[in-house]
């Protein structure tokens, strides 16, 4: 059984017991969260596709940790114009563990 959820403007395929890193969610560590934007649920041969969301479907997850991703280096340059710019960025994330998928 798996589901496709939407959080942080991105879509993720999740299964029970799986850990994944998503955009930062304002929740404390070891708290239960409910993700209600479920786009699709697959249970064996039964496939439920929402328009756009599956009604009544929820994904229950536990917040495992918060952190920051690897640094992304940004370098901009215009040739022959003496313009160079260096910048870096680290994106915040929340690691969650999927506990249950409710149809």
Query: Spans of 5+ residues with little confidence (pLDDT < 50)?
Result: none
Radius of gyration: 18 Å
Strand content: over 45%
Q: Biggest sheet, open or closed, and with what strands and sense?
A: 4 strands, antiparallel
Q: Tell how many strands the DSSP assignment holds.
A: 10
**Molecular shape:** elongated
Question: Secondary-structure element sequence?
Answer: EEEEEEEEEE
Q: For the terminal residues, how far apart are their CA atoms?
A: 11 Å
Question: Going across the major beta sheet, what is the strand order?
Answer: 2-1-5-6
Overall mean pLDDT stands at 96
Strand-pairing-aware structural class: mainly beta
The helix fraction, in percent, is under 10%
Number of helices: 0
Q: Can you put this structure into words, describing what you see?
A:
The chain has 103 residues and is mainly beta. 0% of the residues lie in helices and 65% in strands. The protein contains no helices and 10 strands. It has strands at 2-7, 10-15, 19-23, 32-35, 38-43, 46-49, 58-68, 72-78, 83-89, 92-102. A 4-stranded antiparallel sheet has the order 2-1-5-6, with no helix packed on it. A 4-stranded antiparallel sheet has the order 3-10-7-4, with no helix packed on it. Strand 5 (38-43) and strand 6 form a beta hairpin. The protein is elongated, with a radius of gyration of 18 Å. 14% of the residues are buried.
Summarize the structure.
This protein is an all-beta fold and 103 residues long.
Question: What are the main properties of this structure?
Answer:
single chain; four-stranded antiparallel sheet; 103 residues; mainly beta
